[in-house]
Amino acid sequence: MGEKKEYKILFVCLGNICRSPGAEAIMKAWIKKEGKEKEFLIDSAGLYSGHAGALPDERMRRHASRRGYVLDSRARTFNPTADFAEFDMIIGMDDQNIEALKRAAINEEERAKIFKMTDFCRKSTSYSEIPDPYYEGPQGFELVLDLLEDAVAGLYWYCLAHY
Ligand code: 4NP
C-alpha cells in the first residue's frame, strides 16, 4: 500500500438527502479521527435527481447532529460515466440502489466497483439494506445512523486491508 494512495469512495442512495450524506459525514468523521484525511476522497450522490442542490433532509441533519455529525453537503445526481471513472468503490444503500447501479455499469470493471453498505456491518448483521427513512419516524433515522456507524467502521478496515 503506497503512502499517498487515495481511497475514492462514493456513497449512493435514492435522494442523496438522507442515507448517503449520512454515510459521507460519518465516514469523513472516522477518517478525521484516524488522521487519514489526505488518503481518502469521500462523496455521495443520488439516483433520483429531484432533490439536486438541496441540503440533507432536516430530520437527518437533526438526528446526526445529536451524534456530533454535521451534514452540510448539497445533493447531486449520480453521473455514471464520471463517477465510475473517478471512484474505486461505489456503495449503494439498498437492493434497489444496487440494481440501478448495476444497470448503469457498462463493463465488468465498473460492476466490480459496486458494493452494498450493509455488507460492511459487523454488529447489525441481520440487516441486508440500509432502510429508506424518508417516510419513517424518528426511530427510522436512528436505525439508519446505527447501521451507518457500524458499516463505516467495517468499511474503513476493509479499505486498509484491501488497497
Ligand atoms: P435517501 O432518502 O435516498 O436516503 O436520500 C430519500 C429521499 C427522498 C425520497 C426518497 C428517499 N423521495 O422520494 O423524494
Would you kindly provide a written description of the structure presented here, covering whatever features stand out?
It is a single chain. With 163 residues, the protein is α/β, with parallel strands linked by helices. Helix content is 43%, strand content 13%. The protein has helices at residues 19-33, 58-66, 80-86, 95-104, 108-111, 138-162; strands at residues 7-13, 40-46, 89-92, 114-116. Helix 1 (19-33) links the parallel strand 1 (7-13) and strand 2 (40-46). The mean pLDDT is 95. Bound molecules: 4-nitrophenyl phosphate. 4-nitrophenyl phosphate (4NP) is lined by residues 13-19, 50, 132, 134.
Name the descriptors.
binds 4-nitrophenyl phosphate, globular, 163 residues, alpha/beta
Largest sheet, if any?
Answer: 4 strands, parallel
Radius of gyration over C-alpha positions, nearest whole angstrom: 15 Å
Gap from first CA to last CA: 6 Å
- What is the mean pLDDT? 95
Could you give the topology of this structure?
Layout: E1 7-13, H1 19-33, E2 40-46, H2 58-66, H3 80-86, E3 89-92, H4 95-104, H5 108-111, E4 114-116, H6 138-162
Parallel strand pairs: 1-2, 1-3, 3-4
Helix pairs in contact: 1-6, 2-6
4-nitrophenyl phosphate is lined by residues 13-19, 50, 132, 134.
Task: Tell me briefly what this model is.
This protein has 163 residues and is α/β, with parallel strands linked by helices. The chain has helices at 19-33, 58-66, 80-86, 95-104, 108-111, 138-162; strands at 7-13, 40-46, 89-92, 114-116. It starts with 6 loop residues before the first strand and ends with a helix.
